[in-house]
Amino acid sequence: MISNGYDPATFGDFVEDDKPASDSKLIILHSGVLYPEGRDPTGFFHAIRRLSDDGVFADLDIEFRFRAAGNDEEYGKTVRDLGLDRYVSFLPRIPYSAAISEMQAADALMILQGSTCNNQIPAKLYEYFFCGKPILGLTDPAGDTGQLLENVGIQSIASLEDREQIAGTIKEFVRKLRSDDIAGIPKETACKFSRRELTGDLGKLLDRTLEATPSNHG
Fold first, then answer.
1. In this predicted structure, what is the pLDDT of residue 117?
2. Closest CA to 161 of 138, 142, 136, 135
3. For residue 1, with 0-12 CB atoms within 10 Å meaning exposed, 13-18 middle and 19 or more buried, which class applies?
4. How many whole angstroms separate alpha carbon 197 and alpha carbon 208?
5. Tens digit of pLDDT for each residue in 48-57?
6. Helix 163-178 and helix 42-53: axis angle, to 10°?
7. Alpha-carbon gap, residue 218 to 205, rounded angstroms
8. How many CB atoms lie under 10 A from the CB of residue 39?
9. Which residue has the higher pLDDT, 2 or 78?
10. Which residues contact 117 (CB under 8 A, 6 or more apart)?
């Protein structure tokens, strides 16, 4: 199977860190649509509420930012009801190039994928890889998305349906971000997921198939 990938021309040069040094706020970004089924953020919101109650964010300026999530009114009401306006924001759609720049400027990136979608990998994840930022994977570790994250060295993974697991994973993830003890995947790993590289893999597979096929001269 040849997976989806990203187009390097969309990004320009590989960016290790595009965040202004003067910006002390930690931005953890989810870029793209959420769904009530398949990418339901409700458990995430309750996990953030618990971490706030436990004082994890007491001395921290942090924002979990959702860009172009859809269903903003519904999710926004949940966030307000839980008293999370200080920590969670929903932002409107922006041009694709601006969305890419925002990913590159964030401190970290989030992917949300429920267990009902275990046989799918969001195309956004490959763009995240190229941005070179730490990734928080709220997805079933046994699903395709969780397995891919694990295979490239991402350790911050929690099931989207498990609030306790989410809270513990975010607490450790934020600790590592603050101590600069976590990074995105290496450039050489990210580059393996460019569509050019993946197309090359397909070409090599076809070449091997032809070489292994016996000639038939009738």
1. 92
2. 138
3. exposed
4. 17
5. 999 999 999 9
6. 60
7. 26
8. 23
9. 78
10. 38, 39, 143, 145
Write out pLDDT tens, residues 128-180: 998 899 999 999 999 999 999 999 999 999 999 999 999 999 999 999 999 99
Measured between alpha carbons, how far is residue 109 from residues 2, 4, 104, 112, 170 in Å?
24, 19, 9, 10, 12
- Kindly report, residue by residue over 19-34, the tens digit of the pLDDT: 444 458 999 999 999 9
Per-residue exposure over 145-184, b if at least 16 CB sit within 10 Å of its own CB, e if not? bbebbeebebebbbbbbbbebbbebbbebbebbeeeebeb
Instruction: Enter the CATH code of domain 8-212.
Output: 3.40.50.2000
Residue linked to tokens 């397995």 = 147
Q: Is the pLDDT of residue 215 over 90?
A: no
Q: Look at residues 182, 188, 56 and name the one whose alpha carbon lies nearest to residue 107.
A: 182
- Contact present, 126 and 149 (Cβ < 8 Å): no
Look up residue 104 and give its amino acid. Q
